[in-house]
């Protein structure tokens, strides 16, 4: 009996060591670090609208495009958030290349409808205003759309999603392709925000800065900003409302 117990203990120890070794062999992810009540949140820009976040051992991809190459050497995705059907946010070949058996894709219905059947099965649909938990991460879908008459054709209300994610005591807002809509301006208690500014698809630098000054995230990243003057955005946001502008390496 004692021999069986010792053998069982040895097997458990070997398994624990093996699991620990597998976990430690996961690629590390560099980036900006934000402290939360349950460990660090890491933000890693990739390109344009694409970035990664890592928290509590989970890696979240936002709008991954460009094939598998941009993500080589980075942790595999546990969660993928897709905001819209446009090609700089959604690419089915990229998703097929990076999705793992346990990966959950969160997307609006319009995105799911474009995906091949295998990816549809991994997708949880979230409509504007709805909330779901992915693992222990609450995800809320925020509207994203155009409001300027000459831009209305680019993003209609209800088709795409922005997202608010909660990591412990921190709230992160990913705006997606949008102008300075009332739903953005009404946000409160946002710790980190990702706000677009490029024409004609989203909004001007002045619109983005004005909205940021109203909803006042603690930190804001200008992203999806190709061709825009992020230095002017920083100047317009200013330092008097308690918002820190960080310019990440998207370009």
Shape: globular
Mean pLDDT: 91
| Sheet of most strands | 7 strands, mixed
Structural class: alpha/beta
Compute the number of strand runs: 14
Count of individual helical segments: 7
Low-confidence stretches: 1-24
- The string of secondary-structure elements, in order, is HEEEEEHEHHEEEEEHEHEHE
* Rg over CA atoms: 20 Å
Strand content: 25-35%
Please give the alpha-carbon distance between the first and last residues: 64 Å
Helix content: 25-40%
What spatial order of strands do you see in the largest sheet? 1-2-3-4-5-6-7
Description:
The chain is of the alpha/beta class. Helix content is 25%, strand content 29%. The chain has helices at 2-24, 92-98, 109-114, 117-120, 182-185, 205-215, 230-237; strands spanning 32-36, 39-47, 50-55, 58-62, 79-81, 104-107, 123-125, 131-134, 137-144, 160-167, 170-174, 192-196, 219-223, 244-245. The chain has a 7-stranded mixed β-sheet with strand order 1-2-3-4-5-6-7. Helix 5 links the parallel strand 11 and strand 12 (192-196). Helix 6 (205-215) runs parallel beside helix 7 (230-237). The longest helix has 23 residues, at 2-24. The N and C termini lie far apart (64 Å). Mean pLDDT is 91; it is low at 1-24.
């Amino acid at each position: 009996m004692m021999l069986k117990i010792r053998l069982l203990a040895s097997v458990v120890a070997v398994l624990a060591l093996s699991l620990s070794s597998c976990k430690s062999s996961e690629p590390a992810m560099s980036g900006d670090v934000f402290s939360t009540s349950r460990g660090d949140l890491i933000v890693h820009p990739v390109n344009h609208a694409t970035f990664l976040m890592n928290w509590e051992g989970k890696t979240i991809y936002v709008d991954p495009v460009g094939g598998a190459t941009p993500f080589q050497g980075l942790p595999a995705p546990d969660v993928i958030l897709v905001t819209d059907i446009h090609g700089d946010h959604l690419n089915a070949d990229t998703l097929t290349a990076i999705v793992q058996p346990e990966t959950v894709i969160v997307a609006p219905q319009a995105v799911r409808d474009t995906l091949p059947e295998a990816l549809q099965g991994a997708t949880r649909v979230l409509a504007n205003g709805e909330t779901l938990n992915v693992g222990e991460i609450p995800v809320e879908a925020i509207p994203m759309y155009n409001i300027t008459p000459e831009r209305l054709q680019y993003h209609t209300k209800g088709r795409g999603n922005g997202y608010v994610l909660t990591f412990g005591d921190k709230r992160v807002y990913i705006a997606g392709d949008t102008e300075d809509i009332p739903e953005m301006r009404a946000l409160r208690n946002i710790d980190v925000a990702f706000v677009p500014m490029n024409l004609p698809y989203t909004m001007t630098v002045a619109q983005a800065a004005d909205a940021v000054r109203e909803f006042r995230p603690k930190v804001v990243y200008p992203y999806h900003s190709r061709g825009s003057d992020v230095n002017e955005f920083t100047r317009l946001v200013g330092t008097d409302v308690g918002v820190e502008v960080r310019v990440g390496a998207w370009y």
